[in-house]
């Protein structure tokens, strides 16, 4: 499915020119450049004096959200934390002959920046999904950047989610300029070690450009869902789930692979019915027209083979006894088994992370996890006796590579 990878290629060249200019400007002029771009693209009311969110703003945000939201976001935090706690690893040590000791230490990154889309959009779930694994990993300084609303404030749902998730500091800035601020640091913004979180194509290309100066999670493309369904699957559920991804973006891709041509026809009819009631029906329609796909497979094994080739971000398996096929699925960001495990459950509440590889990169990338916020160091301790056992072999290898100083560092210890 090469079309998945080419969805954004046509616009990337033009975007990169703009992004590179912004990155260079922020690197040169720091905070002044960030404020200028923020006033240009987001809000003229954001200044150096108020672009850091205050405790008062966070307290006021709690007054602007309802109790049902608080209950939902707190339960989401519990579930996401419980899942990611299982990912934690332990440092280890091993002893060998002659007193040699080897091991590995693990510690959380010192500073991480989270990008959360903002403005007219509200994605508190992104805050939870990025912040909680960082906190579980032991990140010391967790900062968040998010574009302000036109009046210079930040969406209250995002602020409340950040407070509940344990974010340490929040900046009112977005776009490539926010990525630059986190990557390079300014007078007001401390440089971070890693940047995570989704954003538009300008954010994605900015993250790609600063990689190496800082670490990043992944280059996320438009969202996608693939559903594998047999003849027993419910067309109402399938249509609803396809639209749940199509509404993200006109570049989003919703795909169905089924063994039943009759089911495929019923899904098409059901889409025509359900789409009328969707608030983002225009986006859904354009997405389905451009990147919607229905494929007929001879059997479930062939459907899974196709799915492994596509390597989708989200894979729903709506077949009888879905666990029978779990071991055959090699490439998918997140797998949803059965008719009552819809993709939005994973987006908001179940616990696994919703920051996932897209555009076929699930072949070699994994969902965001605790591991993304941990650094590892190995350590070596050899006694003289242990080194003596291997010294000639180390010298031999250094000679073969022509690195005589390497061999000399061994020899001098035995003169």
UniProtKB/TrEMBL annotation:
HAMAP family the UniProt entry points to: HisD
Alphabetized InterPro entries for the sequence: Ald_DH/histidinol_DH, Histidinol_DH_CS, Histidinol_DH_monofunct, Hstdl_DH
Protein name in the entry: Histidinol dehydrogenase
One GO CC term, this protein: cytosol
The reaction(s) this protein catalyses: L-histidinol + 2 NAD(+) + H2O = L-histidine + 2 NADH + 3 H(+)
Cofactor note: Binds 1 zinc ion per subunit.
Name of a matching Pfam family: Histidinol_dh
EC number(s) on file: 1.1.1.23
Pathway where this protein functions: Amino-acid biosynthesis; L-histidine biosynthesis; L-histidine from 5-phospho-alpha-D-ribose 1-diphosphate: step 9/9
Record's function text: Catalyzes the sequential NAD-dependent oxidations of L-histidinol to L-histidinaldehyde and then to L-histidine.
Coiled coil stretches, renumbered: none
Amino acids binding substrate: 223, 245, 248, 314, 347, 401, 406
Cofactors named for this entry: Zn(2+)
Gene Ontology biological-process annotations: L-histidine biosynthetic process
Active site: 313-314
Top-level taxon of the source organism: Bacteria
